[in-house]
DNA sequence: ATGGCCCACATGGTGGGA
């Protein structure tokens, strides 16, 4: 089973990229963030035609998440039952015996801002929910845009980013606490090339200079980590015309 | 020099992203 997370930054704009990518990459489950579409505008027919069943939870202009799957999607839950949130950032579903959560963690905007406070509170509540889901599902995976770079090697210039949004100590501590529930970063289960990032700013030719952050992650329960045989970031889409600023992250699970 | 770019909503410029 191949599983993917990809922040597409508007599914309306990026649908053709998604379909093109799926055609070249026959994967089983795709967690998508920032669809920026209300549910009535979701491109369900196009994705069904590509061979995917879909669960989605969107809103106007901002946020919005979806899970695509070749296998049947069961027990869909929208939002965190432990946190009231008008923003559509979370979607859970069971596929092929695996419990998935698709997560779009708040950006936080600036350390110390109201949005930063919301980000940390949101992450705290996420941990409560994930603990409950993991207690109920041995095979558990949470994929998404975490908007947090876990370590210095996940940041193109750690000195420049130290203490700033996406790399502040409280954010990194929140991610560590989530992972302390027993989750492994699929990407770090394997030897990886240096300077691997999943997001690059649109400005300043950041992609060409590889000035990026690794903020999109696939976290796996112990049982799934033992099944995981590979994980990589697919930089190719970022070279396409009018790309998302995020690249897909792909993990392979043995049967 | 703290912005530059991209998207949505709008139809000029603002809010948000990361």
Please characterize this protein's 3D structure.
Helix 3 packs parallel to helix 5. 25% of the residues lie in helices and 26% in strands. It is of the alpha+beta class and 255 residues long. The strands form 3 sheets. It has a 6-stranded mixed beta sheet with strand order 3-4-2-1-14-13. Strands 5-6-7-8-12-9 form a 6-stranded mixed beta sheet. It has a single domain (2-253), classed as 4-Layer Sandwich (Deoxyribonuclease I, Chain A), CATH 3.60.10.10. It is globular, with a radius of gyration of 17 Å. The mean pLDDT is 97. Helix 3 (114-136) links the parallel strand 7 (98-104) and strand 8. The protein has 6 helices and 14 strands. The structure holds one DNA strand of 18 nucleotides. Mg(2+) binds at residues 7, 34, 145, 147, 245-246. Residues 4-246 form the Endonuclease/exonuclease/phosphatase domain. The record marks 216 as: Important for catalytic activity. Its cofactor is Mg(2+); Mn(2+). Pfam families: Exo_endo_phos.
The span between the termini is 7 Å
The fold-level CATH name is: Deoxyribonuclease I, Chain A
> What is the structural class?
alpha+beta
Low-pLDDT parts are none
Binding site for Mg(2+): 7, 34, 145, 147, 245-246
Cofactor: Mg(2+); Mn(2+)
Site (Transition state stabilizer): 147
GO molecular function, one term: DNA binding
């Amino acid at each position: 089973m191949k599983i993917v997370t990809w922040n597409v930054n508007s599914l309306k704009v990026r649908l053709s990229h998604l379909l093109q990518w799926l055609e070249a990459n026959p994967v089983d489950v795709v967690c998508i963030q920032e669809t920026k579409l209300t549910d009535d505008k979701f491109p369900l027919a196009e994705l069904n035609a590509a061979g995917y069943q879909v669960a989605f939870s969107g809103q106007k202009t901002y946020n919005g998440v979806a899970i695509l799957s070749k296998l049947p999607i069961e027990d869909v839950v929208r939002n965190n039952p432990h946190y009231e949130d008008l923003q559509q950032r979370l979607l859970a579903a069971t596929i092929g015996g695996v419990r998935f959560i698709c997560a779009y963690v708040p950006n936080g905007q600036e350390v110390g801002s109201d949005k930063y406070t919301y980000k940390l509170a949101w992450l705290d509540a996420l941990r409560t929910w994930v603990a409950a889901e993991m207690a109920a599902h041995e095979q558990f995976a949470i994929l998404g845009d975490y908007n947090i770079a876990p370590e210095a090697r996940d940041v193109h210039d750690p000195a420049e980013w130290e203490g700033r949004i996406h790399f502040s100590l409280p954010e990194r501590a929140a991610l560590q606490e989530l992972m302390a529930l027993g989750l492994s970063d699929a990407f770090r289960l394997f030897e990886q090339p240096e300077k691997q990032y999943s997001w690059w700013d649109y400005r300043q030719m950041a992609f060409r200079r590889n000035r990026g952050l690794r903020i999109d992650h696939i976290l796996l329960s112990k049982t799934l980590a033992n099944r995981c045989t590979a994980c990589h970031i697919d930089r190719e889409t970022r070279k396409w015309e009018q790309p998302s600023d995020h690249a897909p992250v792909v993990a392979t699970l043995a049967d």
